[in-house]
Amino acid sequence: MWSRSLTNLQKTYDESYLKCSTAVYYETQHSFCKGDEREATLCWRNALDQIQISTASKKHRDRTPKSETERTLVRSLRELELRCKERIDILEALRLSRLDLNSPDKTPNPTAEQDGQGDFSSPA
């Protein structure tokens, strides 16, 4: 019979994994387009919150797991947590790069002008 903390760990993992799977679905939806990155990011953040807020996760960060099953669940939750952070960072970077590309007031690179790279006229 599983202990209560092991049951909580399993429940946290299952719910977080489902949220991560939903995020992947949103990322890949309409792969010919950019997918629904806003929904994907929301799902990744929800999964990350679930893992970080979980009382089971907090209990298991400070103590040694008692069984191989518990060790595996703790390791899997840490891996999911890292994946969530990575995907959130990637999607945010992608969003910001698109904002930069679509910015109407593109300013020239000031260092290029100082280095003479921006001047195409012949020397006088």
Dominant shape: elongated
Radius of gyration: 23 Å
Share of residues in helices? over 70%
Number of domains: 1
Uncertain segments of ≥5 residues (pLDDT<50)?
Answer: 116-124
**Tally of DSSP β-strands:** 0
Task: Average the pLDDT over all residues and give the rounded result.
Answer: 80
User: Would you state the CATH class?
Assistant: Mainly Alpha
Number of continuous helical runs = 5
Order of helices and strands: HHHHH
Structural class: mainly alpha
- What is the CATH homologous superfamily assignment? Phosphotransferase system, lactose/cellobiose-type IIA subunit
State the distance separating the first and last CA atoms: 88 Å
Reported by name, the CATH topology is: Methane Monooxygenase Hydroxylase, Chain G, domain 1
Q: Beta fraction of the residues?
A: under 5%
Q: What would you say the CATH architecture is?
A: Up-down Bundle
Q: Biggest sheet, in brief?
A: none
Q: What's the quick description here?
A:
It contains 5 helices and no strands. The protein has 124 residues and is mostly helical.
